[in-house]
Structures are given as structure tokens and as C-alpha cells.
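Suppose you are handed a protein chain with no further information: no name, no annotation, nothing but its sequence. What can you learn? This example shows the usual starting point.
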Amino acid sequence: MINIQTNSRSKGAARLTLLAPLLALLGVAVSPSAHADIRSDVAQCAAISDDAARLACFDKAATDMQSERSVAASNAVAALAQEFRFDRHTLTGPLALTLEVSGNLQLSRETFAAREVEEAMRRTTKALGEIQDWSLAITVHGGKVSLSRGSPYSGQELLIQAQSGAERSGLPIDRYTITRGADAEPLLWDDGRVRSANEHISIVVTGLGAAATR
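A reasonable first move is to predict its three-dimensional structure. Written in C-alpha cells, the prediction is:
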């Protein structure tokens, strides 16, 4: 009896290992938390012995999961639009924020960008608190040009401040990534003079499927 139970569990485990590649082929990304929970419908699919029936079951489960992700993405778009409704220049896409940070703010240069990142992350967490499996991709863009007056943030400066602000936001470290992107092109006046070095930080909500960017 012990051997029979062991074989049954081994077969079940082997079938479960098919879950990730099968769902990937079907266009559904499964988060670590989803793996941990092992949803009941997916577990039922893995227990089916007939190959055709099992694949059909996985296909339906993947479709259902994608539908749930689409709903989550729509909810996230609405929640962010509500949270940042008075920040016209901050919410630059359905799930994308752009923080304009200028190194010319001499009195608060050492902390300004960090505080902007911290606040944006806290507000995003507040808005999306009831939605599962999202994360943040943060990219910093330092100034590409040197101005005759003032001193734009470099990419390295913004990287350090973004890391500091993210740590203080309280969002777990596995829920966000921070990278240094290309230096930003300057903003120009109509006559070609440099108006701003245009250093900025972009924050994009990820993990909610393709519907999030429509």
C-alpha cells in the first residue's frame, strides 16, 4: 500500500511539472504565489491520466487564468487612474508613471529623487493593494547634457536615490527591480536652446498580462 501511494504521488508530481511549460505555451505567465497555491482546477487537470483530456483541461485552466489576469489588469488601470487623477504629468500610461526629477533643486538634491520614488511606490501599493501578483519595474534616466547653470542628476545618482526610496517604501524587494537606463535627451525651447536636462524615473506595473498595456 505504501508503494502504491508513493507511485501515485510521484505521478502527480511529474504531471504538475508540466504545468509551467504548458501554460507558457498557452501564453499565460504563472507567478510564484500561484505555484505555491496550486489552484484546485489546475491540480485536477494534473490528476487526469488521459493525455488528450489532460491537455484539454490545462487549456481551459489557462484560458480561465488569463481571463482573471485581464480583469486584474483592468482593475489596476482603474485604480491607478483614480489614485493619480490629479497628477496629469505623473501617470503617463495605463500602468506607467514618470517622475520628473531635477538635480537643480539644490536645497533637496541629495534626497529629492528618493522621496519622489518612495511616495510613488507607496501610492501605487495603496491603489493596487487588493490586486495580486503585480510588481514594479523602475528605470532611471540621468541627464545627458551639462547645463551652463545647475547640475543635472547623473544616472548613477538617480540609481542610488531610487534604491533608497524603494527600500523606504516598504514594498518587498522581490516585488520590484531597479535598473539604470540610457541618459535622457534634453528638452529644448523652440529656438533650440536647452530648456531641461530631462532627467527622470519611469515606474511600470508589470505581471498583469498584455491587457495591462492596451
